[in-house]
């Protein structure tokens, strides 16, 4: 028999590796398949969507430099200012309507229509008041020029150094006009005369006075008769004449 030759590479005291059996080779292949299946599963697993951050500053800078965009923004600002001004004007116009209409929520068209309808009504009221005033003055002038009027004039001599006269005229059932004429300055102020008239049941509506070129002062008092007061013209004229 032949003797076995020593190994080419001596072990130098290290034991040789054990031979790999079929079981180890099979286990290695199964492990490799498992690792590959895990990698493939991770690869095909859907990933969460990625959000993109938009650079708004770059977009704003681009639009701000666009002449058309600047023109559009200016137009929008002007339109907002115009609408605000128009709403303010319509609000002022609505405040001119009667109180009953101001409480309603009227549209712009209804507001304009209401104002156009209300203006002629106001003009009619003003015209009627002016006409009534002219009729009163005309009636007073006719009563001074006609005879047989219910007019009482008290003429006395010298009263406190001045010649004075008082007349009382009925304008209606509840209104009377008193005319006082005197020379020089009255010693009794007008406020005292009005206090005396209020005690007699007469309240002042309006008054006027003027002085003629001869130095005569005329005072006109338009009074309203309160309640069921019965005016005694002669007695009232005498009382006023005594106060002048």
TrEMBL record:
Coiled-coil residue spans: 119-146
GO molecular function annotation: DNA-binding transcription factor activity, RNA polymerase II-specific; protein dimerization activity; RNA polymerase II transcription regulatory region sequence-specific DNA binding
Superkingdom of the organism of origin: Eukaryota
Cellular compartments annotated: Nucleus
BHLH domain ranges (all copies): 70-122
InterPro entries linked: bHLH_dom (IPR011598), HLH_DNA-bd_sf (IPR036638), MASH1/Ascl1a-like (IPR015660)
PROSITE patterns: BHLH
GO cellular component: RNA polymerase II transcription regulator complex
Keywords tagged on the record: Coiled coil, DNA-binding, Nucleus, Transcription, Transcription regulation
Protein's GO biological process: cellular response to iron ion starvation; positive regulation of DNA-templated transcription; positive regulation of siderophore biosynthetic process; regulation of ethylene-activated signaling pathway; regulation of transcription by RNA polymerase II; response to arsenic-containing substance; response to cadmium ion; response to ethylene
Pfam families reported for this sequence: HLH
Main location: nucleus
Coiled coil recorded as keyword: yes
Protein name: BHLH domain-containing protein
The organism of origin for this protein: Manihot esculenta (Cassava)
């Amino acid at each position: 028999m032949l003797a076995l030759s020593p190994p080419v590479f001596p072990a130098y005291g290290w034991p040789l590796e054990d031979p790999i059996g079929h079981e180890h080779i099979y286990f290695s292949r199964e492990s490799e398949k498992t690792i590959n299946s895990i990698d493939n599963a991770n690869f095909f697993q859907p990933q969460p969507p990625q959000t993109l951050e938009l650079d708004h500053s770059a977009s704003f800078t681009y639009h701000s430099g666009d002449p058309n965009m600047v023109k559009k923004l200016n137009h929008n600002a002007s339109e907002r200012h115009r609408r605000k001004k128009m709403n303010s004007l319509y609000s002022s116009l609505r405040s001119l309507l009667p109180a009953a209409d101001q409480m309603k929520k009227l549209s712009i068209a209804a507001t304009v229509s209401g104002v156009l309808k209300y203006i002629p009504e106001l003009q009619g009221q003003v015209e009627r008041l002016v006409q009534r005033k002219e009729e009163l003055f005309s009636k007073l002038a006719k009563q001074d020029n006609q005879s047989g009027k219910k007019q009482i004039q008290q003429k006395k001599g010298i009263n406190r150094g001045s010649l004075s006269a008082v007349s009382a005229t009925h304008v209606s059932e509840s209104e009377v006009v008193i005319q006082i004429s005197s020379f020089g300055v009255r010693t009794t102020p007008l406020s005292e005369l009005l206090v005396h008239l209020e005690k007699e049941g007469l309240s002042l509506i309006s008054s006027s006075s003027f002085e003629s070129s001869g130095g005569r002062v005329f005072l006109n008092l338009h009074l309203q008769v309160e309640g069921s007061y019965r005016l005694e013209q002669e007695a009232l004229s005498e009382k006023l004449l005594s106060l002048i």
